[in-house]
Every structure is written in C-alpha cells, then in structure tokens.
Write a structure and sequence with these properties.
Blueprint: E1 6-7, H1 11-22, E2 30-31, H2 34-43, E3 71-75, E4 81-86, E5 89-91, E6 94-101, H3 117-124, E7 129-134, H4 141-151, E8 154-159, H5 166-180, E9 185-186, H6 197-210, E10 215-218, E11 234-239, H7 246-260, E12 265-269, H8 270-275, H9 285-304, E13 308-312, H10 318-330, E14 334-340, H11 344-350, H12 355-360, E15 382-384, H13 391-404
Parallel strand pairs: 1-3, 7-8, 7-10, 8-9, 11-13, 11-14, 12-13, 14-15
Antiparallel strand pairs: 2-6, 3-4, 4-6, 5-6
Helix pairs in contact: 7-13, 9-10
Protein name: adenylyl-sulfate kinase
Organism: Planobispora rosea
EC number: 2.7.1.25
Length: about 400
C-alpha cells in the first residue's frame, strides 16, 4: 500500500518529471497549477505571459491527503524514489509545485543513453548544433548532413523514447548515428507525444533549444500498421457474479481455441490466480482491485507478444476493469469485455460452493452481489446470460464474434 505522502506518477507524468528535473523543460521547475495549465491550453502561455506550448501537470486521486506545504516522494514503477514534490496548490486532483531530484533517472529503456541538456551543452563546447527529434526512423540522412554542413553544426539526435515504441526509436537513432558518423551526438528524451501535432512540434522545439540546438529538424512521423487481427494480441476479459458461469464459459473458449490451434492461449482463472499470483490477498476492495490489476498485467504481457489471454475474475468494479483495458491497449493489444449477465437469483440457485448461503448468513463479509456491489458494465463488447442454455451455445456466443472479428481463424 502506498504511503499517503508517496506517489507513482503514470507513464506520461514520469516522462514529464524527468524532463523537468534535467532542465529540458526550462524555464519550468515543477508541475503546473490549474491557472497555468488553463492559460497554456487557451493562449499558449503561462499565466504570467511566458510562452509555453503544452500543459505539464500531475494528477493525484482527489482523496489523496496531500495539502499545500506537504512534500511528496515521487517514485518510479519499481519503487525507486525519483524526486520530491513540494505541494504549492491542489485543485481537485491537479497537484502543482516545484520538484527536486533524488537521483539520476534509471527507469525505462536505455537509461545509459540519457543525457541532460547541461551535459550535451558541455560536450558541444560552444559549437553549433542541429537537433533532430525522432519518433521513428529517419528517411533522409542526406538532408540532415547537408543542413549540418550548411550551418557548420554538430548533429544531435534526440530519439523521443516513450511508450511501447520507445526502444525501436532508440535503435533507429543508434543506426542513424552510425551512418552519420563523425562527432554525431545522441541523447534519449522521454517526451510523450501530444495529441495536437502543432503543439507536439512546438514542444519538441523547446526541448531541442534546451539541449543547445541552433536549428531543429523534426523527423518524419512513424507509419503504424496494426496488422491483421489474428496477429495482434488480444485479452478476452470475462466479468460476472460468482456462479454466473463465466469460468465455465472461459474454459470452454480456451478449449475451443486450443482445438483450433491457431492462437497461443493463456488462461487466467480468477480462483487459480487467487491461490498463486495473489496468494495472501484478502477480499477488501483494495485487495480485490489489486488482484484484478495483477491479472490484467499478466494478460497484457501475454498479449504484448501476440498471444490471446482469457481472464475470468468477478471484477466487480468498473474503474478497475477500465484499468485492465488500458493495460492491454497500452501494449498495442485489443481488448474484449464479456459480461456474463446471469441474474443474481440464478447464481444463488446454483451456489454449488455454498458461498451465497454463507454470505446471506453473514459469514462472508463483502461478498459481491450480497454485501458488496457489482457494477454492471456499460462498455461490454459481448453480453451473455447462461440461464438455461447449453455450455456449447454460451461458448459459441463468444467464439463466433472472435472469428467474425478476425481474431481467430
């Protein structure tokens, strides 16, 4: 459980944090206030009129106890402390204030290739630099070489390594450096892309300037071809009450896919995961959410490499199901939510484990559907009710959409 005065920012915020700490976002020294963020979005300036292209903000849960004057330790996903944020303002979840580094950034790929603007400027030793920011491979090195010769400048490659495509961008930059030769410099920059292309380019200009560039060439945007569905990773996530039939249908789907033999299948049953991956967790909301996140993480990792993962937990809370969807989509996989919407009365009638009877008797606290809520999905991709239908029909109601959607051949 995270201490009240510690926090792990999300991936975009971690990238922004690193750029704040290393000076690539100068003159910014911390996360923006609500007024600054609003002014940037509306006018392209901070509240005091200083030009700046994009909001740089940190969001904490609204129930987080941090208040103005508090110092929050910001950690990476592995728990290593990165910085201390001194809270200057809270506006809902938006938390503003200056940040102080606690050590060098080591999270993410290619940490050894990160260079601060000060380090690059020192190596330039007053020479002109042509910065080339990259989100994909460089198509035309001749233009870069010609421009650098015209300016009598050193080429500085700035691969913008963020997200799943980050390592590929860095590899492309290393290959370009080898071909350009000479004293070409390289610094990995964890700059997350902005939705507005013009804003993204302006922010890249700012970062290039911070690194000492006299001129900036933005590399071409990468062309992303997602590939046919049967080659993409897929998470099929079942949710429903205990006794709804979700585990039975999930096992039937697993068997049907294994019989076809066209996909690599990982099956994560809720009860099995409880005994292994989540051993020791209880049934409080926090522990149940953590159990679902662990299932989602493993499923996303399986899907990351083109596998098909089947999950069958109860997953009663919409927010946690949304987190799992985001995990899958963040690694480039598809996600299908299957709501096994068998009514509570039918689930109780089945009650082969005697769980509902014990919950009604008050022997099982926080039991979903009885003493703890089940939030019915509003975003389900497939809805089935297993009342009175053969298991084969229920399995087909999930398998057929997978075939029709091209995920299974």
């Amino acid at each position: 459980m995270t201490s009240p005065l510690e926090w792990t920012p999300d991936a975009r915020e971690l990238g922004d944090l690193e750029l704040l700490l290393c000076g690539a976002y100068r003159p910014l020294t911390g996360f923006m206030s609500a007024a600054d963020a609003h002014a940037v979005e509306e006018h392209g300036t901070l509240a005091d009129g200083t030009p700046w292209p994009a909001p740089v903000t940190l969001t904490l849960p609204e129930d987080h106890p941090a208040a103005p004057g508090d110092r929050i330790t910001l950690r990476d996903p592995e728990g290593a402390p990165l910085a201390v944020l001194t809270v200057a303002e809270r506006s809902g979840g938006l938390t503003a204030g200056p940040v102080e580094a606690l050590g060098a950034a080591e999270h993410g790929p290619f940490a050894r290739l990160r260079r601060t603007p000060a380090e690059i400027r020192e190596e330039l030793a007053g020479r002109e630099a042509l910065a080339v920011t990259m989100r994909g491979p460089l198509d035309d090195l001749e233009e870069i070489t010609a421009t650098a010769e015209e300016l009598d400048a050193v080429v500085l490659l700035l691969p913008l390594a963020f997200g799943e495509g980050g390592p590929a961008v860095v590899r492309a930059a290393l290959k370009a450096r080898e071909k350009l030769g000479g004293d070409t410099l390289l610094a990995v920059v964890p700059l997350a892309p902005r939705d507005d292309h013009a804003v993204d380019l302006e922010l890249r200009d700012r970062v290039a300037e911070a690194y000492g560039a006299a001129e900036h060439l933005p590399g071409p945007e990468p062309v992303t071809l997602p590939g046919p569905p049967h080659r993409r990773g897929l998470v099929v996530f079942f949710t429903g009450l205990s006794g709804s039939g979700k585990s039975t249908v999930a096992r039937g789907l697993r068997d049907a896919l294994l019989e076809r033999g066209t996909r690599t299948v990982t099956h994560l049953d809720g009860d099995v995961v409880r005994h292994l991956l989540s051993a020791g967790l209880g049934f409080s909301r926090e522990d149940r959410d953590l159990n679902i996140r662990r299932i989602g993480f493993v499923a996303a990792e399986a899907a990351r490499h083109g596998g098909l993962a089947i999950c069958a937990p109860i997953a009663p809370f919409a927010a946690t199901r949304a987190e799992v969807r985001e995990m899958a989509e963040a690694v480039g996989a598809d996600f299908l939510l299957v709501h096994v919407a068998t009514p509570l009365a039918e689930c109780e009638r089945r009650d082969r484990k005697g769980l509902y009877a014990r919950a009604r008797a008050g022997l099982i606290p926080e039991f979903t559907g009885i003493s703890s809520p089940y939030e019915e999905p509003e975003d389900a991709d497939i809805v089935i009710d297993t009342t009175g239908i053969p298991i084969g029909e229920a399995v087909d109601s999930v398998l057929n959409p997978l075939i029709q959607g091209g995920w299974v051949r």
